[in-house]
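Bump. Still looking for Na+/alanine symporter structure tokens.
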Amino acid sequence: MEQFITAANGILWSLPMVFGLLALGLYFTIRMAAPQVRLIKDMVGQLVGGGSSSAGISSFQAFAMALGGRIGVGNIAGVAAAIYLGGPGALFWMWVTAILGAPVALAESSLAQLYKHKVRGQYRGGPAYYILEGLGRHWRWLAMAYAGATVFATVVTGPQIQANAVTAATTAAWGWDPLWVGLGMAALFCLIVFGGMHRLARTVGLVVPFMAAAYIAVGLVVVAVMWQEVPAMFSLIFTSAFAADSVYAGMLGAAISWGVRRAVYSTEIGTGSGAQASAAAHVSHPVKQGLAQAFSAYVDTLFVCTMTGLVILSTNSFNVLGTGEGPPIVEHLPGVEEGPAWVQIGIDAVLPSFGPSFVAVAVFLFSFTTLLSFAFYAETNLAYLIPSKPVQRICIAAARLLLAASMVIGSVQTSAFVWSLADFGVGLYTWVNILALVLLSPVAIRLLKDYDRQRRAGQDPVLDPAAIGVRNAHLWEQIHAAYERTGDVDEAMDHVADTAPDTRAITVVPRREG
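Sorry for the wait, here they are.
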């Protein structure tokens, strides 16, 4: 089993995936006129505007839910793994991936909003929905593949690495038994997740900003105390990123590959996961939520992942394996496995007796909010796959219980095995979503142009699907019709949220529009 997963990851995460994601980000950057730079003000503005409805959650709640999915074990253990396998320069390529990936996040989240549906009284959407509605029924197989792969990854493979990281950190800090930690997390997860989407959104919305801010603040304290090491540290990052440092000669490919790979796992850029939270938001134009999700990529990588990397590098709390066989080419922590322990040691070097406990709490919060988001993503895709409402309810409940069981199983597995499982699951649905984004890129670009046009005219953008040649955006057609009657976009959105019947993503044209 382990050999099969390793071989499959070698294919799924090969150079075509790495450079394909970077190329897609560059393409959207050019065609959208660098929205990751020119629309930063709008990105931040979307986090404080808008409200929720009976069918949808607020823009900030959707942002927080997606951020909860993004900020997880990848922000601590993932960064450590990237440095161990790709050298300090991997951190630079994580930054590149976040900057080029922001327009990708904007595109996929805007598309999810555009083609959202109302399922069991709540807005649902994501790649499975926009593949079918945007590309036509002859692409149904691709939509089904995405939905099935996402359910598998969020219910079986992904939860295991999250729970495993928590048990590693709590064992190092307090000596807790991994099995009991896994059981406790599973029990708490079930108490929260069976409360429904709104309770989930409120929980994540409260926890995510606090945990991210606290982690960044502690990281800044460590870097400030180690300020004399900062110039040499940044020099090491940039020189090793291009294999210009003699110690890391020959590691250019590893730095790029592992930097992109771990950035994708951490930010979920190109995977379509964050887009599923975006579809639930209550906004007047799809691009508004796309901008909020693009900003979450910055928060995840440029702030949280960067803090992890800077703490590790500034305190020399890292090892680097190198490209050949044999011992590590850099070994500051002999015998210490890459992961949360590196950050615990780094913080402890500056704030004695504080690092292990703080990182254990941070890893728990980061991982637990990711698990809550996994539950939402699994439910969204099961709602797509299963038309029968009674069967939906049974399968969703079963998926939640299986997700909880995966947490318990992962808590007692080896770190290497659960990382391989997580990469396998993410790789499966990321390939599907990248293909969909390439095919639907004209629609995503038209959406942003429509948003820009209305903003330049001094208007609060409201989408009229027909005006930009988009069909099958059923809810948005109803919202715009209600808006034309009332002249009040908030009233129109509330009306549709309350009165629109449940729909399924099955009424489609036979080929892609535009």
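Residues 505-514 have pLDDT under 50 and may be disordered.

Edit: fixed formatting.
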